[in-house]
Amino acid sequence: MDTPNSRGELSIKNTGTLKVATPSDREIVMTRVFDAPRHLVWEAMTRPELVQRWLFGPPGWSMPVCEIDLRVGGNYRYLWRHDSDGHQMGMRGIYREVVPPERLVATESFDESWYPGEALDTWVLVEQGGRTTITLTVLYESREARDAVLKTPMADGVAAGYDRLAEMLASGAALGVEKGGGVA
Amino acid sequence: MVSDRAPTLDRVFHALAHPARRRMLRSLAAGEHNIGELAAPFRMSFPAVSKHIRVLERANLVRRRVVGRTHICRINPAPLKDLAAWTEGYRQVWERAFQRLDALLDELKTHEKNRGHTEQ
User: Fold this and answer.
1) What is the pTM for the complete model shown?
2) Do B20 and A183 touch (CB under 8 A)?
3) What residue ranges do the domains of chain B occupy?
């Protein structure tokens, strides 16, 4: 268990691991550090032939279609396919802000969405010492939509890995606890 | 399944939605405290503190026992574990993708180095 510091907070190790937080009812925020300069991360996020090599979920899925018109008002189109059963899942959206290599804002809308409404994705890239932190904020139209998205992977029976109090409290911290530390 | 416990999760979210209650939980993470000790960091009346503790109790985050006239609270971490599990599946799906991105970025770095590229 991590030791609370002088302000009673718990420190969290986060090198190379993804943190998922829910700072408000309608948001999911993911933060992760990559060992690469920002301009390369930007390329990997915005060049279709590179996006196709990483942006897909569980094993067995691939991303055969990736079209990106990288300008404000431009569209993107993603299509994922399950390699053995042929099941497909499509997503599209419109870019709202394109500020290379630091900020990308786009809507997201699934073809057969299991959550109501659209979502807004905001990618922020910050480089420090040759490493880049990606912060992805997904803003849903309602809490119900956000919760539906978070619950989905649980349907696959993904086992929970947390059993230490520090990590549990980190999840509490994920709910906006650590903004400045003390009592607001 | 965590999703079967949605009403419980709702109470946990509600309980964690107040900074004073989060501060109390952090104190309790370090060990048991009585209500006076929990109230100490706040300019808050005893009834107000007591109300916050009841919210934490309803979310099953805090257990209370009475010794003489003293109410002693301790943390019950189980609901926080559910909360962690709730985002864990989502996290794992993205982590897989980001691990592939790690590998791709290594490749791009090598490629750039070989070209003698100096852009930052």
Assistant:
1) 0.64
2) yes
3) 1-120
